[in-house]
Amino acid sequence: MSDGKQDHAEWSVMLHGFVDGELDPIHAAQFEAHLATCAECQAEMETVTAMRSQLARPGIKWQAPDKVRQDVMAALSSERHFATRLDHGWRRVLRLIGQWSLAPSLVALAASLFLFFNAPNIDLALQDQIVASHVRSLLADHLADVKTSNQHTVKPWFNGKIDFAPPVVDLAGVGFPLVGGRVDYIDGKVVAALVYRRGGHVINLFIWPRAPERDASAAHDGYNIREWSQGGLAYWAISDISAEDLTGFRDRFIAAAGAESEKVIPAK
After folding, report:
1. Which terminus of the chain faces fewer neighbouring Cβ atoms within 10 Å, N or C?
2. DSSP character for 182?
């Protein structure tokens, strides 16, 4: 970062993330180094710390009346009961239609509807972390630790920094050029982050090991998120491009990564 009031506003944003323990190890270290030399941030840190101490005092936090708590718990119980009844209702419909041998197409239709209403949702807590890491990379101007479109430079750069080998492909030929890579910290683990662009928009692709197969999408805080898994790895792509473009990025990445893994080195 360069000096200036505009850049200092970015440090101020990082300060609150630092106090809340939301920064990854790399950004936390950068902020600590800045804090040691910035009197303005030191003063703001003292103010924020003092305010948090005041709010933590007994009697400061508002306690909800017992009646309010009872109403909330009753509402949650009713919601769980309704969801259970809905799930049992769908299973009963499937059994009845399955016994109707003259309408096999209806069985397929009912199964599709059941899968639609029971499709897995992207974990909200992970969505929050993905969005936070994406925004921090933009605010701190720290998109990449290794800035290059050469996939053969980015891939070996991860050696020794993470305990798995993420596939790295350049998709410039299909409109998603590779910008570089970095390490990040999400869901309690160090992960790989590949950075791509679509016109003037940034796509962060976070990768880490995970066995269960998943494929889902979501919109969160103005960003589109696309999750999938392949070859024992979890992939989370996030950007402000359209959901259709992000799905197109996913499809092209899967195709290119699959083609790269199938390459065979000829025998000498």
Report:
1. C
2. E
